[in-house]
Amino acid sequence: MLDPLVICEIYDLFSRILFLRYSLPLGYILMNGFCHYRSEGTSLIKYKIPTRGLLGLRNVILTVSRGTAVLNTVFDGYQPWAGDISTRDQGSLVAFEGGSTTSYALFSAQERGQLFISPGMEVYKGQIVGIHQRPGDLSLNVCKKKAATNIRSNKEQTVVLDSPLSYSLDDCIEYIQEDELVEVTPLSIRMCKNPKLTKKR
């Protein structure tokens, strides 16, 4: 099996920091990068990586450089398979039943990690609704409603929810693992656990 390769060029004031910080964790740099300063004060890094290693790389570079870096890529050829690329350490928060999400359920769910959804959204069983703060997946009931009682309270509890994470198609492809899928419709982009692999477990 062959890996298609691209040459990446990063122009930035802090490209040396970028290279030192992310060359090892990315795990797919195939040759030592080189860096030199240009006349306008920026620096350049150039190295080869498999094309599959580009997923998520642009977001990492722009985040660390605060939006000042420029990334150019050029196809360079093929090389034998370079091995698996390291993936995320955290698991996923998964809805174990379908329905409409509630503020009451999301308030307790956000303590488990970062959510992709907001109150009033329709979810289905097996849909990924957030990022677990620990390794391994966690099933949650994000549609749970507060139990109604006949006791009136003078104090109403206000629920403060964190803003949900927004994601693009590229972010989803970068995020998913082998047992997860990306669902693309004209109205939304969602992620879910692969039902075939879930049944086997």
Automatic annotation (TrEMBL):
Q: What SUPFAM superfamilies does UniProt report for this protein, alphabetically?
A: EF-G C-terminal domain-like
Stretches assigned to the Elongation factor EFG domain = 37-87
InterPro entries for the chain: BipA_C (IPR048876), EFG_III/V (IPR035647), EFG_V-like (IPR000640), TypA/BipA_C (IPR042116)
Q: Where is the signal peptide?
A: none
Span of domain TypA/BipA C-terminal: 90-194
Name of one Pfam family that matches? BipA_C
Q: What protein name applies here?
A: Uncharacterized protein
